[in-house]
Amino acid sequence: MTADGWSRRRFLAGGAVAAALAGCLGDDDGEEELPAEPIDLTEGQACDVCGMVIADHYGPAGQLFYADGKPDDRDGPAWFDSVAELVASHEGRRERGWELREGFVTDYSTVDYDLLERDDGGDGGDGENEGETYISSHASSEAFAEVTAVEYVVGSDVEGAMGEDYLPFSDSEEAAAFAEEHGGDVLSWEELPSPNA
User: Fold this and answer.
1) PANTHER family in the record, alphabetically (predicted)?
2) What are phi and psi of 176, to 5 degrees?
């Protein structure tokens, strides 16, 4: 075989490899999106549901990445100061046909969290919430875990930004111990009840 024959074969083989790689990696139109990574929610981002600044309030934070570049007003995820609000919002978006790519929530198994009792009511001083126990907020990117990789303590006496919340733990034993001490049930992502029910 001539040198030209080998060169032509190498060219054709190289083209086939390049085409295969392009198919695996997706095209520039974003048909096959790369996995999402959690972002920091510590830079003044406001919850998409209630408008409160996420890093300024108690409880778990969350973020949801949807297909087709939603939400439309920015690159990146929808973000929340409460897992209960995240679940309620996701239900509504799913009913409108939004497809969830990936979601992340604060993982209390990987952070040094605090339980804090409010003594000022946190509501203008009328004492309505006085004596309630809240869990600290952790909204940096390394504090998040994938929504289906954690278990949630639901119905405990420990509150988040908007009151009763779903508290995520990646360690099943830690979730069970938290529920034993503070009440509530341990549920998976698929079992979470609708906060709107």
Assistant:
1) HTH-TYPE TRANSCRIPTIONAL REPRESSOR YCNK
2) -65, -40
Residue 118: predicted pLDDT: 76
Q: Are residue 82 and residue 20 in the same domain, yes or no? A: no
Question: Is pTM beyond 0.70 here?
Answer: yes
Is 197 contained in some domain? no
pLDDT at 131: 84
Distances (CA, A) of 79 to 43, 63, 82, 97, 191: 12, 4, 9, 18, 21
Consecutive sets of 10 residues in the chain, 197 residues long: mean pLDDT of each?
42 36 40 78 95 96 87 82 96 91 97 87 54 95 98 97 95 98 97 83
Full residue range of the structural domain in which residue 132 is found: 54-191
Q: H/E element holding 104?
A: strand 100-106
Name 158's bridge partners: 133
pLDDT at position 40: 96
**Does residue 137 contact residue 54 with C-beta atoms inside 8 Å?**
yes
Instruction: Count CA atoms closer than 13 A to 68's CA, side-chain side.
Output: 8
Q: Is 38 exposed, middle or buried (0-12, 13-18, 19+ CB in 10 A)?
A: buried
Burial 130-155 (b: 16+ CB within 10 A, else e): eebebbbbbbeeebbbbbeebbbbbb
Neighbours of 124 (CB within 10 A): 8
Cα–Cα nearest to 134, from 153, 157, 112, 151? 157
